[in-house]
Amino acid sequence: MDVKKRMTELVNLLNQYNYEYYILDAPTVSDIEYDSLLRELEQLEKEYPNEVLDNSPTRRVGDYLRMDLEEVHHSAPMLSLANAFSFNELIEFDQRVKKVAQNATYVCELKIDGLASTVHYDQGLLTLGATRGNGVTGENVTKNMLTIKKLPKVLTEHVSLEVRGEVFMDYATFNEINEERAKNNEPLFANPRNSAGGSLRQLDPEVTRKRNLNHFAYSIVSPSNYNLHTHMEILEYLKVLGFNVNPHYRHCQTIDEVIDYINELDQLRKEIGYPTDGIVVKVNELDLYDLIGTTVKSPKYMIAYKFPAEEVTTKLRDIVFTVGRTGMITPNAILDPVIIAQTTVSKATLNNEDFIKKRDIRIGDYVVVRKAGEIIPEVVSVDLSRRSPDAKPFEMITKCPACGSQIVKNDGEAEHYCLNENCEGRKLEAIIHFASRETMDIEGLGEKQIELLYQKGFLKDISDIYLLKNYQSELLELERFGPKKVENLLNAIEKSKDNPLDKFIFGLGIRYVGSKIAKILSSIYETITELSKTTYDELIQIEGIGEVIARSIIEFFENQQNLELIEKLIQYGVNPKGTVKTETAPVNYFNGKTVVLTGKLTRFSRDEASELIEKLGGKTTSSVSKKTSLVIAGEDAGSKLTKANELGIEVIDENTFLQLVEPYMDK
User: Which of 106, 304, 325, 652 fits as disulfide partner to 81, beta carbons 3.0 to 4.6 Å?
Assistant: First the structure.
């Protein structure tokens, strides 16, 4: 195996999935699949530390922020948590903690499946609310946070403090919203977690208000300022201040008590009316946190135990095929409806022909369906003991289900494709993709509305969306298209003309160009016209874009039909601009400095220290020169320390470094 190539593949995949999960609120893979890939990457990085990539997701919390929300620099990084997937891993966590903190006890809390947030209070008044974002920089959502009924706007005491918590949507609210959207022929939300994330990050607070979000508080930044010494004291003080604190928490003296409580909550969570995906286990004694330490991405004094995915057996009634916007043919399982994670599942993807044949999945089989992380249902396996003699072996179709064209499968690929550019199925899916929330985000133009408008002849390609204003009277004659709805739709279409370029590029449906690649392109090319004139040689010089993606982009813009489509869109006023976005770091000791690390560090790995310095606005280099601003000397520092002293460069030890970065580390 080419280790470096595999690590690059894993980093690119995981960063794309992180962007879809944290920013688009639209994950495309299950938690189980994501965690499996992440663990593979972590193992490779452990075995080959010199090959670790700078943009590895193991070194960061998140990647991107929405371009249309004001940025907020967190006073202390909002770190993610390391995960445990078994009790053995919890025991290993306990052993690591007890090596340096023998007297540590634990607090267990339900891990709410929502969106991490932070709120600031000045003399008891709520003044700022923000999302986690990339851990260092979040998004200002103050106006939207003010619409959350369970979040106090005025505290019971006149204190100034910052509180971390989780914004979420309960199942009852989620079901009510989807019922209403179904009545209006609007696309349904996938799950409460995505709904909460999308609702909190709306530009219009009134939209957020109608979504009836909820909030649980779970920590205070710099708790020692309030004479708090344990996490249990933090939770009790939060309740005194008026915060909504999840009632399902317990102080446990040993890891055995932790495991007992997890088993108890695992049964209880099925009756709880809001989404959860695990248990957070954290050291109770705050004075032990510095002793135990933290990594750049996650604290070492707490861990998230993930609940096993729910699995249910049901009958596979049929396998149907759909064609996507790129022509990819996908087999889908039609199932007898079953309840998994408090939602009804009647359909699951079967990915491709290889996936089905490897598992010998047949029509009429009883299959095990898993809903991992309360997100995406997937067929896991077949219950062969219940297979009927009449079970029908799978046969891959040879023609497109939408247009009847011959489908093809390229060497080295698992998927089949319809290559007919005039395929009605592809054209319809292209319009649906272009208008979706992840791309141009045209509110009121969901899948059902597009299908109706396509059938009626109003939409033939994506450019026709911007001509709908010419058919206002005709639209009013359609079912469920009342005056207010038509007005809102046309306003949303007009508003979409000013979307960022990355949304537009992603919306065009260029094969292999997902949201992350679109973001990269929009940071380099100012307009879609400029991108259309790029060359293959230019593209492959861009970090993150390989030969396959570069060829796909060039082929897209060599197609005259695509160029004519873009010209029409520009003519209709759709010509978004790209932006080269430069993030600024919070003002601190390291901002703007060139730093060299030398010797052995005991509290951080070399990579962790470098990452933290870079997040705080500095940069690290491997050699000492006149351009070096600062040298951090660990144990057994050698020639670099000698040279720094000769050049008169400032030198600090690891303890001083820890004191300087401590204000920016989550407590």
Answer: 304
